[in-house]
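queue> pop job 88
queue> type: inverse folding (structure -> sequence)
queue> payload:
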């Protein structure tokens, strides 16, 4: 059996792993098929031909709907893949929104580049995204299914976003089976909306993420205090706006919950919250549809909001005209918009009209990949280029790591501690090179396991 690391190896985006079972079952399948994010090199990787034949892939397992795990699915189908794509039912619903939204962005950006004399084609079109959705098959958490003779799978709750999953895979090899576990993206325990990650007790081969494998997040009380200060200081003292780049799926719903909680506790003033993302509106509706997957605290907060007279004021903005109107709002607004790394979508307009104003603040609430606009803000850039225009950065930049939906080093190690014995092979992925190496060393020191940090397109015999 062979495992090839086609993405998220030495970097955070582009999650994609090829498993070839050989003569055991004669199957070839992918775990995730994600888009690379962050600058020209990522664009080049996304546009390149796959280094395997998509027509020979039997099936795909998607751990969750985020674009860095699912965003190349339309290209896979366009290139000849004909099999089923399995994901949890909630992920299937989210993918129906997210892949179409990604295609819309690709089409618009290609159109903009063409108007400026560049010969650019969209990575994929809306029609190609729609064609890929026909391959999706929803599965339930905890229920085993067999996507191919000799292969059994089970999805466990990863606690990252709605529908996120840890993939357990058993591949028959003669009279025995070898168990592979792909962590997907693991959530931080104790966060709102979703439940905590499911402990896993055994694996022969483990592929584990390491996004924040070199650091620990602030506690939730500290995080709430920092968010409360960012909002109160900006709205009350500086009389400006708060701009929050947030992934439409997961992070936006978390932030809405936390703002409501701060208001309920009297820790922030009455504010006007604008959620400016059509996809976030759809994602929130899907979240409510799958309310059985929400944690108890979120259910209680929803009950409180229903009986509190519509405060705090939360408005979902879908229409482009209403979105443009926000550009003239000079103070008192908290604007949550996508994309989460500031590289596409409506957030770029809100940054254009606010990042140069000293009375405003930008709250960075999630991981920012290298090469993205969000990463440049986090790294302290004094100017940034937005829509071809150089903009001064005068707004306060808050980086609130405790809002991350990714497990920190402590939570990752705690999740690994539930394994009853060491996997035969452990691979650390989905982390920048130095971070993955640091986390791998932590695993060696704490558990004594053999740990490897693969590179892009490394292939391992299992």
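queue> result:
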């Amino acid at each position: 059996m062979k495992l090839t690391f086609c993405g998220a190896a030495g970097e955070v985006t582009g999650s994609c792993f090829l498993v070839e079972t050989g003569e055991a079952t004669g199957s070839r399948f992918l775990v995730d098929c994600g888009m690379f994010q962050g600058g020209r090199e990522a664009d080049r990787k996304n546009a390149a031909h796959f280094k395997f034949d998509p027509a020979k892939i039997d099936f795909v397992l998607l751990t969750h709907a985020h674009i860095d795990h699912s965003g190349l699915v339309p290209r896979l189908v366009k290139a000849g893949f004909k099999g089923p794509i399995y994901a949890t039912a909630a992920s299937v619903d989210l993918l129906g929104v997210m892949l179409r939204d990604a295609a819309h962005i690709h089409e618009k950006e290609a159109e903009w580049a063409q108007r400026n004399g560049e010969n650019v084609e969209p990575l994929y079109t809306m029609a190609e995204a729609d064609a890929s959705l026909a391959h999706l098959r929803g599965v339930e958490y905890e229920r085993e299914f067999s996507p191919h003779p000799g292969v059994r799978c089970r999805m466990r709750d990863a606690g990252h976003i709605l529908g996120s999953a840890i993939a357990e895979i058993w591949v028959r090899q003669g009279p025995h089976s070898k168990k592979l576990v792909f962590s997907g993206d693991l959530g931080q325990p104790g966060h709102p909306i979703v439940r905590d990650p499911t402990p896993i007790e055994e694996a022969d081969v483990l592929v584990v993420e390491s996004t924040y494998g070199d650091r620990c997040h602030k506690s939730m009380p500290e995080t709430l205090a920092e968010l409360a200060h960012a909002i109160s200081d900006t709205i009350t003292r500086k009389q400006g706006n708060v701009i929050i780049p947030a992934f439409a799926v997961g992070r936006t719903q978390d932030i809405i919950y936390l703002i409501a909680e701060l208001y309920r506790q009297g820790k922030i003033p009455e504010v006007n919250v604008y959620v400016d993302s059509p996809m976030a509106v759809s994602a929130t509706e899907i979240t409510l549809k799958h309310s059985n997957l929400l944690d108890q605290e979120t259910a209680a907060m929803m009950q409180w909001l229903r009986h509190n007279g519509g405060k705090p004021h939360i408005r979902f903005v879908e229409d482009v005209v209403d979105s443009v109107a926000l550009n003239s709002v000079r103070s008192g607004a908290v604007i949550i918009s996508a994309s989460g790394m500031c590289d596409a979508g409506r957030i770029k307009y809100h940054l254009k009209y606010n990042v140069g104003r000293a009375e405003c603040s930008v709250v960075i609430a999630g991981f920012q990949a290298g090469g993205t606009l969000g990463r440049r803000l986090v790294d302290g850039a004094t100017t940034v280029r937005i829509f071809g225009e150089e903009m001064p950065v005068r707004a306060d930049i808050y980086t609130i790591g405790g809002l991350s939906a990714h497990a920190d080093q402590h939570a990752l190690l705690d999740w690994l501690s539930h394994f009853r014995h060491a996997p035969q092979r452990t691979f650390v992925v989905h982390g920048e090179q130095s971070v993955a190496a640091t986390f791998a060393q932590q695993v060696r020191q704490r558990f004594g396991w053999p740990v490897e940090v693969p590179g892009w397109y490394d292939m391992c015999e299992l």
